[in-house]
Write a structure and sequence with these properties.
alpha+beta; two-stranded antiparallel ribbon; Translation Initiation Factor IF3; single chain; four-stranded mixed sheet; 5 helices; 2 domains
Length: 161
Protein backbone atom coordinates (compact mmCIF):
# COMPACT_ATOMS: atom_id res chain seq x y z
CA UNK A 1 0.00 0.00 0.00
CA UNK A 2 1.36 3.43 -0.96
CA UNK A 3 2.04 6.05 1.63
CA UNK A 4 0.15 8.98 0.11
CA UNK A 5 1.89 11.58 2.24
CA UNK A 6 5.24 10.64 0.65
CA UNK A 7 3.74 10.57 -2.85
CA UNK A 8 2.26 14.07 -2.43
CA UNK A 9 5.58 15.36 -1.09
CA UNK A 10 7.48 13.82 -4.01
CA UNK A 11 5.05 15.40 -6.49
CA UNK A 12 5.54 18.80 -4.89
CA UNK A 13 9.32 18.36 -5.05
CA UNK A 14 9.20 17.60 -8.79
CA UNK A 15 6.96 20.60 -9.52
CA UNK A 16 9.55 23.16 -8.42
CA UNK A 17 9.98 26.13 -10.68
CA UNK A 18 13.11 26.65 -12.71
CA UNK A 19 14.11 29.55 -10.46
CA UNK A 20 13.80 27.43 -7.30
CA UNK A 21 15.93 24.67 -8.85
CA UNK A 22 18.60 27.18 -9.90
CA UNK A 23 18.59 28.79 -6.43
CA UNK A 24 19.04 25.35 -4.87
CA UNK A 25 21.81 24.56 -7.35
CA UNK A 26 23.66 27.74 -6.39
CA UNK A 27 23.43 26.94 -2.68
CA UNK A 28 20.44 29.00 -1.56
CA UNK A 29 18.33 26.56 0.36
CA UNK A 30 14.65 26.86 1.12
CA UNK A 31 12.87 25.09 3.87
CA UNK A 32 9.26 24.09 3.51
CA UNK A 33 7.07 23.00 6.35
CA UNK A 34 3.73 21.55 5.38
CA UNK A 35 0.98 20.76 7.78
CA UNK A 36 -2.04 19.12 6.25
CA UNK A 37 -5.16 17.59 7.69
CA UNK A 38 -6.31 14.26 6.29
CA UNK A 39 -9.66 12.66 6.93
CA UNK A 40 -9.86 8.94 6.46
CA UNK A 41 -13.05 7.47 5.06
CA UNK A 42 -12.32 3.82 5.59
CA UNK A 43 -14.16 1.13 7.53
CA UNK A 44 -11.90 1.49 10.55
CA UNK A 45 -12.16 5.28 10.81
CA UNK A 46 -11.84 6.87 14.19
CA UNK A 47 -15.20 8.09 15.52
CA UNK A 48 -15.47 10.10 18.70
CA UNK A 49 -18.08 8.28 20.83
CA UNK A 50 -19.28 11.49 22.53
CA UNK A 51 -20.02 13.54 19.41
CA UNK A 52 -20.48 10.83 16.79
CA UNK A 53 -18.08 12.66 14.46
CA UNK A 54 -14.96 11.35 12.85
CA UNK A 55 -11.71 12.69 14.24
CA UNK A 56 -9.27 14.15 11.73
CA UNK A 57 -5.72 12.95 11.74
CA UNK A 58 -3.12 15.74 11.70
CA UNK A 59 0.11 14.79 10.01
CA UNK A 60 3.13 17.07 9.95
CA UNK A 61 5.41 16.73 6.96
CA UNK A 62 8.67 18.62 6.88
CA UNK A 63 11.12 18.69 4.03
CA UNK A 64 14.56 20.21 4.05
CA UNK A 65 16.39 20.70 0.81
CA UNK A 66 20.01 19.73 0.85
CA UNK A 67 22.46 22.36 -0.25
CA UNK A 68 24.12 21.48 -3.53
CA UNK A 69 27.49 23.05 -4.07
CA UNK A 70 28.85 23.91 -7.49
CA UNK A 71 32.63 23.43 -7.71
CA UNK A 72 34.84 25.42 -10.10
CA UNK A 73 38.23 24.02 -11.12
CA UNK A 74 41.05 25.65 -13.07
CA UNK A 75 43.43 22.69 -13.42
CA UNK A 76 47.07 23.32 -14.20
CA UNK A 77 48.12 19.68 -14.56
CA UNK A 78 46.61 16.25 -15.11
CA UNK A 79 47.10 15.50 -11.39
CA UNK A 80 43.99 17.58 -10.58
CA UNK A 81 41.73 15.07 -12.35
CA UNK A 82 41.29 12.80 -9.34
CA UNK A 83 39.83 15.55 -7.16
CA UNK A 84 37.52 16.65 -10.00
CA UNK A 85 36.15 13.13 -10.43
CA UNK A 86 35.77 12.75 -6.65
CA UNK A 87 33.51 15.82 -6.65
CA UNK A 88 31.36 14.23 -9.37
CA UNK A 89 31.23 10.94 -7.45
CA UNK A 90 29.92 12.93 -4.47
CA UNK A 91 27.11 14.24 -6.73
CA UNK A 92 28.47 17.77 -7.05
CA UNK A 93 28.43 19.57 -10.41
CA UNK A 94 31.79 20.84 -11.64
CA UNK A 95 32.63 23.79 -13.87
CA UNK A 96 35.96 23.19 -15.55
CA UNK A 97 37.80 26.32 -16.71
CA UNK A 98 40.56 25.31 -19.12
CA UNK A 99 41.53 28.78 -20.36
CA UNK A 100 44.95 28.77 -18.65
CA UNK A 101 45.63 25.05 -19.19
CA UNK A 102 47.94 23.72 -21.90
CA UNK A 103 45.88 22.42 -24.86
CA UNK A 104 47.29 18.90 -24.72
CA UNK A 105 46.67 18.60 -20.99
CA UNK A 106 43.23 20.19 -21.37
CA UNK A 107 42.31 17.53 -23.96
CA UNK A 108 43.44 14.71 -21.62
CA UNK A 109 41.56 16.22 -18.66
CA UNK A 110 38.39 16.67 -20.71
CA UNK A 111 38.57 13.10 -22.02
CA UNK A 112 39.16 11.62 -18.57
CA UNK A 113 36.45 13.64 -16.79
CA UNK A 114 34.06 13.04 -19.70
CA UNK A 115 34.59 9.29 -19.36
CA UNK A 116 33.96 9.48 -15.62
CA UNK A 117 30.76 11.46 -16.18
CA UNK A 118 29.62 8.88 -18.72
CA UNK A 119 30.29 6.07 -16.22
CA UNK A 120 28.33 7.99 -13.56
CA UNK A 121 25.46 8.56 -16.06
CA UNK A 122 25.90 12.33 -15.84
CA UNK A 123 26.04 14.93 -18.58
CA UNK A 124 28.44 17.42 -20.15
CA UNK A 125 27.54 20.92 -21.34
CA UNK A 126 29.93 23.17 -23.20
CA UNK A 127 29.61 26.71 -21.81
CA UNK A 128 32.28 28.29 -24.00
CA UNK A 129 35.27 27.13 -26.03
CA UNK A 130 37.33 26.48 -22.90
CA UNK A 131 34.72 26.20 -20.11
CA UNK A 132 32.67 23.04 -19.57
CA UNK A 133 30.00 22.00 -17.08
CA UNK A 134 30.09 18.39 -15.87
CA UNK A 135 27.04 17.28 -13.91
CA UNK A 136 26.21 14.02 -12.12
CA UNK A 137 22.95 12.15 -12.58
CA UNK A 138 21.07 14.09 -9.87
CA UNK A 139 21.53 17.50 -11.56
CA UNK A 140 19.43 18.62 -14.50
CA UNK A 141 20.72 21.45 -16.69
CA UNK A 142 18.73 23.14 -19.41
CA UNK A 143 19.67 25.85 -21.85
CA UNK A 144 16.31 26.78 -23.38
CA UNK A 145 17.55 29.91 -25.16
CA UNK A 146 20.48 28.07 -26.67
CA UNK A 147 18.27 25.43 -28.33
CA UNK A 148 15.96 28.14 -29.67
CA UNK A 149 18.82 30.02 -31.26
CA UNK A 150 20.03 26.89 -33.03
CA UNK A 151 16.67 26.30 -34.72
CA UNK A 152 15.76 29.86 -35.69
CA UNK A 153 17.52 32.56 -37.62
CA UNK A 154 17.05 35.99 -36.12
CA UNK A 155 18.64 37.85 -38.99
CA UNK A 156 18.07 36.87 -42.57
CA UNK A 157 19.86 38.30 -45.57
CA UNK A 158 16.94 37.78 -47.96
CA UNK A 159 15.81 41.42 -47.65
CA UNK A 160 19.21 42.75 -48.67
CA UNK A 161 19.58 40.76 -51.90
Amino acid sequence: MKNWENVNLEQKETKKSFLERMMNLLGFETQIEIEEVYEEESKGSMVNPKTGRERAKVVSLSSQNKVTRLVVYEPKSFDDVQSIVNQLKNKRPVILNLEETDKGIARRITDFVGGAVYALEGSVQKVSSSIMLFTPLNVEVSFPLRTETRNEQFFTTDKFD
